[in-house]
Amino acid sequence: RFNIIRIYKSFFTITCILSFYINSHAQHSTHKFLKNKVEIHLKNGEKEEALKLSLKAINYSKKNNNIFAEIEWNNQTGKILKSNHDFTNALKYYNIAKELSEQTNDSLTIARCIFNIGSLNNLEYASASYNAGDTEVKKEIRTLAINQFEYILFHFKETKGKEEIFAKIYANLTGLYSY
Predict the structure, then answer these.
(1) d(CA 74, CA 2)
(2) Beta carbons of 41 and 49 less than 8 angstroms apart
(3) How high is the pLDDT of residue 108?
(4) 135 neighbors 126 (Cβ within 8 angstroms)
(5) What is the pLDDT of residue 15?
């Protein structure tokens, strides 16, 4: 009788571990599949299809309580909307990603989210300036972008893995200061 209880406990433990592994693997596979599909749609210029999939991926990530995937998909949705010059809605998704990233306490994830917002503001300023032919257009957006980039440089200087994002920030700042 003692052996049966021990065997049952062992079987239950193994079943729980396998279930967790299979569920994690399935989530990872689905995430990777959706990411590949979105990239294919974007390469083919099918932004609306990419946007639909990205929005579905946000819901899937929420449903599975995968905050890092949810952050990534909100950023991806913002990126797609940004490429369509839909700055208002892109900012909405970038802000959601930033708020979620702050819950993780992962410095690099937070810095990337702030960078995306700064990059969006930079593009909005550059587009408005180019279209109007006047660098005074949306000047507050330019200042906001500069402040966001400088915030990252100051507050995340000790963050591991920051080099790529810092290089992008310096490139953006160079452009912003040359206007």
Answers:
(1) 52
(2) yes
(3) 94
(4) no
(5) 57
Distance of alpha carbon 174 from alpha carbon 72, whole angstroms: 27
- CA dihedral 146→151→154→159, nearest 10 degrees, is -120
Q: Closest Cα partner for 70 from 45, 98, 50, 42? A: 98
Q: Model-level pTM greater than 0.85?
A: no
CA 135 – CA 125 distance, rounded (Å): 8
User: Which parts of the chain register pLDDT below 50?
Assistant: 16, 18, 20-26
Find out whether 115 and 78 touch, Cβ atoms under 8 Å.
no
Distance CA 38, CA 49 (A): 8
pLDDT value, residue 132: 65
Contacts with 140 (C-beta within 8 Å, 6 or more apart), sequence order: none
- CA–centroid distance for 65 within its chain: 16
| CA-derived radius of gyration, the chain | 21
